[in-house]
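TASK: fixed-backbone design
INPUT:
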């Protein structure tokens, strides 16, 4: 049995613990909030054994094996490093840090503490994504020529102080949801040769929309993230011999379609997730602990660092184009 501790009891923590309950080897042991009352209520609702009124107390509890960090982006570095210094294994929400400098610091702490450390990039373990990677590796659609992936929802009605819009908490669409389309392009095509990007910001400096083109030697990826409107969230991967369409919302997909060149039939693949889909990253953590791995081969430290460098590169490319406040 793996004893889990959760830090930061906001929206994602509620979803995550519901999936944790679906994994038999996982025990929701401790939950920590900046408010003891909130921690007590959360513990009661999800049957956690212990509730803590501070994050530090949870990190000091010797029974906690893995800490799941579910705080805003701006505090991932601080709490992941503190947890690893206490010898805890860590699953930290995406993006690991605000930039690649923070990610390097976190990885370096993971190495010196000798603990397991992974970014909670759950999409990497989604069954449809796994199956699509397989299809591409076995050359079912030929060499990828074009990839399109977006992630948009309406967030302009959120509290400006919320983590989504507040620049002090790492707000903005790119770090919150743009990370997913970038991840898909990185997973399937690797690091691009060059990046074109353009963003719109609001008056407080929060980035609200970013459109990107990743240039590869023989392919183009067209990517988008935005808070100003809903988008289709269907991802397309177009190869010389076929097209794969990952069903909406592709980052948590329940299936995909394959259309082959010279074949009129469309193959529909249905792969419903267990729970919302966090179960797979939870199982990946357990697998790693069982094998004594300090990183998971499917989403390594280097993968997280590469992803953070791509996020940095998009931001610096966007700065060079004409952007306007909306
Ligand atoms: N994988 C996914 O599908 C997914 C989905 C949504 C979000 N996320 C990620 O999960 C993280 C949290 O997102 P969320 O939507 O759960 O955010 P949220 O609802 O705002 O909750 C964040 C929690 O962090 C804690 N916190 C610590 N310092 C804070 C501060 N200065 N201001 C506000 N809250 C603070 C709070 O918990 P206490 O009051 O209990 O201390 C708060 O409830 C983000 O990194 C986000 O990118 C991932």
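OUTPUT:
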């Amino acid at each position: 049995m793996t004893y889990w501790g959760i830090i930061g009891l906001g929206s994602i923590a509620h979803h995550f613990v519901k999936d944790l309950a679906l994994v038999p080897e996982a025990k929701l042991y401790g939950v920590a909030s900046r408010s003891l009352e909130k921690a007590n209520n959360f513990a009661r609702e999800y049957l956690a054994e212990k509730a803590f009124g501070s994050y530090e107390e949870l990190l000091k509890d010797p029974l906690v094996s893995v800490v799941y960090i579910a705080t805003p982006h701006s505090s991932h570095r601080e709490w992941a490093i503190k947890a690893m210094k206490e010898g805890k294994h860590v699953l930290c929400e995406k993006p690991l840090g605000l930039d690649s400098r923070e990610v390097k610091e976190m990885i370096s702490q993971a190495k010196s503490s000798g603990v397991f450390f992974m970014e909670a990039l759950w999409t990497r373990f989604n069954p449809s994504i796994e199956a699509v990677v397989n299809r591409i590796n076995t050359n079912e659609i030929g060499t990828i020529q074009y990839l399109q992936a977006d992630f948009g929802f309406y967030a302009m009605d959120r509290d400006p102080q919320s983590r989504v819009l507040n620049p002090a908490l790492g707000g903005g669409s790119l770090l919150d949801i743009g990370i997913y389309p970038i991840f898909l392009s990185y997973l399937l095509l690797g690091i691009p040769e060059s990046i074109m990007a353009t963003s719109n910001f609001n008056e407080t400096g929060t980035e609200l929309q970013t459109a990107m083109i990743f240039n590869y030697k023989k392919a183009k990826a067209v990517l988008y993230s935005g808070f100003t409107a809903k988008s289709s969230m269907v991802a397309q991967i177009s190869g010389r011999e076929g097209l794969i369409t990952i069903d909406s919302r592709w980052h948590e997909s329940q299936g995909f379609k394959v259309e082959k060149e010279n074949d009129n039939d469309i193959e529909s693949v249905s792969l419903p997730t267990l729970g919302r889909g966090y179960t797979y990253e939870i199982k990946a953590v357990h697998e790693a602990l069982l094998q004594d791995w300090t990183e998971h081969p499917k989403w390594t430290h280097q993968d997280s660092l590469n992803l953070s460098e791509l996020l940095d590169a998009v931001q610096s490319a966007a700065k060079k184009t004409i952007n306007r406040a909306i």
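COMMENT: The first strand starts at residue 2 and ends at 7.
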